[in-house]
Design brief:
Length: about 375
Amino acid sequence: MTKSMIQATTKSNTKFNRTTYKTPMHNDPAFDDIEETPVKIDALLDILSLVRVSNSAAEEYLIDHYIVPHNPEQDTYGNLFVTVGENPSVAFTAHTDTVHSAYDFNRYYVGKKGNKKVPTPRDVANNLERQAIGIRNNVAYLDSENDCLGADDGTGVWIMLNLIKAKVPGLYCFYRDEESGRVGSEWSAQHDKERYAGIDMMLSFDRKGTTDVITHQMGARCCSELFAEHISKAIDPDGHVAPDDGGSFTDSFSFIDMIPECTNICVGYYRQHTAFEEQDLTWAAYLVNRLIAIDWNIVPVAREPGKLNNEHLAIVDLVTEFPDDVAEILETHLGLTTLELATMIAELNFCTTDDVERLVEKGNQMFPIYEDWAK
Ligand SMILES: [Zn+2]
């Protein structure tokens, strides 16, 4: 389909092109050339051409042709796991399904059981759906009428296939039904905890763009700054990749109470879940080679799973919720007298300690003082 184009632009050395880089919306790839990778970029284009609705023949094709050759273990939900090396401490994740608005919750269904629709049996023989993929300036886009390109998360799957081929030690988790609400990974987190006993870090390859290593999903911390900084620098020593707290969620979110460092890595897709989705192929290839080069033994693990880290605490909330305790701390532990504190409050509000006393007696907030002055 586009083989000659790919080969024409593939060179062994990447030329850094960040200065002119905008986003693939303008069809400017992150780099000039697509690096060589253990699994060819053609495999990514093949994966993108598969319309991988959950439980579809195309999703099954992806599993059979790309994951099954690595002898995965399959749990009863249908998630697939490939282990490289002895007792790895790193887990990598991607999901095999894609977003399709034509289907309820992005899945194929047949029939009904009571009020519940029942998913189709996974049937390779039927309806393998393909879509056309175009490439402009090393950026892949959807070249037919369909719901999405599916780089979310076909690119994640392709990255994992590369790491497996490069023999990077790890537990490779291919989860199902992420797009219907992390169903596969949630199932695994609840029913298959032992699988993750030795895992210290989990990296999902399911973040848009080329700049983020995710520290928070749904506002909750999922990995430490130390860990995110280390991974960011390892991916891009020039500092364009950085920790980012604006993650929504992906499969690693299902494990934040279990695994110390959970993150999501930018894989270079844009406008996911739309027909205008694009994949920066230069970034995907670059990222693969950086990930292979990481020494996973020296990546710091600093977060305690399940710990809130008190990030959402504010002093004003403590004063409101624990006024007596705060008073005791100020008076007994910090040695502040009532008059000293009243003086400080008066100074902050440009009034006298008498004003403060009057307002306390009235049970008022501070701001009505200004109203009094205005009269
Ligand atoms: Zn995704």
